[in-house]
Amino acid sequence: MSRPDVRLAAALLLPPLVIGLVGTTHPDHLTMGAATYWRDMHVVLLPLFPLLAVGPWLLARSVDPVYGRITLVLGYVYACFYSALDILAGIAAGGLKADREGGLGTVFGLASDLGQVGSIAYIGATAAAAGCVIRVAGLRALPGALVALAGAFGFMEEHVYWPRGVLSMAAIAVGWVWLLISLRSAQRPATSPVP
User: Fold this and answer.
1) Which domain of life is it from (predicted)?
2) How far is the first Cα of the chain from the last one, in angstroms, to the nearest whole number?
3) Does the structure show a pLDDT above 60 at 192?
4) Whether residue 122 has pLDDT greater than 70
5) Which of 12, 36, 83, 99 is deepest in the core (most CB within 10 A)?
């Protein structure tokens, strides 16, 4: 792999893998005992979640500027609205639970609605980037597209809870790398046999 491809692979792999690693420590339920950790963990995740939007954008723009712009817009929507989920259901709910019980239902309801918008945008960005790569690389990219989409859908359903949310992050990472390898192998000029 060339140096730019190694950097691209790192940009595709690191965000979901680091988020998944943090997700292995995510408490199953928000309890009084877990509230402070819950809140602090989501503070750590706050700058990491938007980085998931970088993968689809980098991959799509390397193939087609129009798809690059589509994934940029969808990634932006994801980053805004999913951050709202993290802030409300993670940071605010953890803070409220640590202090008192009141208001949790409201915070979780708002967070869920906003996070859903962000998650759907992330699935859309993933689909656009995957479609763009499939257009260039053909069916060899299909497994990577399906794995990345399954990971994006799993992320919407499971957040980063262990084990399914963490596995979703791993699927996103594997899917992006598969798509990158498929794209680069399709873009390499075919060598002609020596007569």
Assistant:
1) Bacteria
2) 28
3) no
4) yes
5) 12
Write the pLDDT tens digit of every residue in 80-100: 999 999 998 888 888 888 776
Q: Which of 158, 191, 154 is nearest to 175 (CA)?
A: 154
Question: Residue with structure tokens 């817009």?
Answer: 73
Read off the amino acid at residue 163.
P
CB 5 within 8 A of CB 181: no
183: Cα separation from own chain's centroid: 20
CA 48 vs CA 15, 19, 98, 123, 149: distances in Å: 6, 7, 24, 17, 19
Nearest Cα to 60, choosing from 179, 194, 148, 189?
179
Q: Are 12 and 169 in contact (CB under 8 A)?
A: no
**In 3D, which of 39, 33, 16 has the Cα closest to residue 160?**
16
CA distance 93 to 182: 42
Query: What one-letter code names the amino acid at 174?
Result: V
| Tally of CB atoms within 10 A around 192 | 6
CA–CA dist 35, 126 (Å, integer): 32
Rg of the chain over Cα atoms, rounded to whole angstroms, equals 18
Q: Is 27 left (phi over 0), alpha (psi -120 to 50) or beta?
A: beta
